Amino acid sequence: MKALVYNTLFDNRIALIDRDMPKIVSNTDAIVKVTMSSICTSDLHIMHGLVPRAKNNLTLGHEFVGEVVAVGKDVKQIRKGDRVAANCITFCGECYFCKRGFINNCQNGGWELGCRIDGCQAEYVRVPFADMGLTRIPISVTNEAALFVGDVLSSGYFGAEMCEIKQGDTVAVIGAGPVGLCAMMCANYMGASNVIAIDINNERLKIAQEQGLSNCTLNPNEVDIEDIIKKLTNNIGVDSVIEAAGTKETFEMAWKIARPNAIVGIVAMYDRNMVLPLPDMYGKNLTFKTGGVDAIHCKKLLDLIDEKEISTGFLITHKFPLKEIETAYKLFQSKPNNCLKIAITH
Length: 346
Prior knowledge:
This protein is of the alpha/beta class and 346 residues long. The chain folds into 2 domains: 2-151 and 294-345, Medium-chain alcohol dehydrogenases, catalytic domain (Quinone Oxidoreductase, Chain A, domain 1, Alpha-Beta Complex); 155-290, 3-Layer(aba) Sandwich (Rossmann fold). It has helices at 41-47, 130-133, 143-146, 152-162, 178-189, 202-210, 225-232, 248-257, 278-281, 298-306, 325-334, and strands at 2-6, 14-18, 30-38, 58-59, 64-71, 83-86, 124-127, 134-136, 170-174, 194-198, 216-218, 238-243, 258-266, 287-290, 316-321, 341-345. Strands 3, 5, 6, 7, 8, 15 and 16 form a 7-stranded mixed beta sheet that branches. Helix 4 crosses helix 5. The longest helix has 12 residues, at 178-189. It starts with a strand and ends with a strand.
């Protein structure tokens, strides 16, 4: 089969090559024929050597939908022939952390697909703990609509959930990339009456506005964010902040625009340590929450898509067949303004 493999010996560190078909290794495994996958920024991080735990000579990818073609004898919920969406996190469902919903910290899993074991940017993929990591897609939900359930959409939901949003809250989302846009969508679903989108990319801010995800869009290169937020909130600050951008400046912005006793939910990944200036914050009584996505709501998110409560199809701005995935990577790395997510058809 064809697979997009990361190897430091390759000229571009990735290449579409022939690999052996995956096989059932554990009785809880499933083999999935991939019908559509996507490229994530974390795939680029692996390419650039920024993920120390990633293994070399590995098939990349962890965001996909497909059809189950084989299951281990201990798989009870998923059957051959099921059309499924995959969770980006591999988790057993039985360990201390899984039983408490902290699946990102699974003692028998974590971020495995496309990092520690072969991922989904191939014709077929082996999925460990299939009953946990795969969710049936409702009949009326398309592959495109379900593609981001287990990663980007789950990350946005995680960010909004961390903020404990109440009916009528004002929520600021820093970063209008795919995760930030999903966070806005989920904040609206959870009852926010005012969602403020903040980004330096006006094209992405326009998408947030056109999709009805935000009531207000702000570009820090054009306006004083702190000043505008004060005016918009009667000098109080926002009820919660979702930080989905991942820079030193956006980290600082997040705590500065939050009102006293607010929650700052951080879903961004940083390339260096961030410092909490506690003396400057003293008296604001802020709560910070951060971490890798605990993507435990895949079924709920698929149901919400099925019920037309949320929709992520607009995130797909480009499509490439698997045979052209190396070209797709080059486009994704160049980060043109009109590129949000790339769907790879298999």
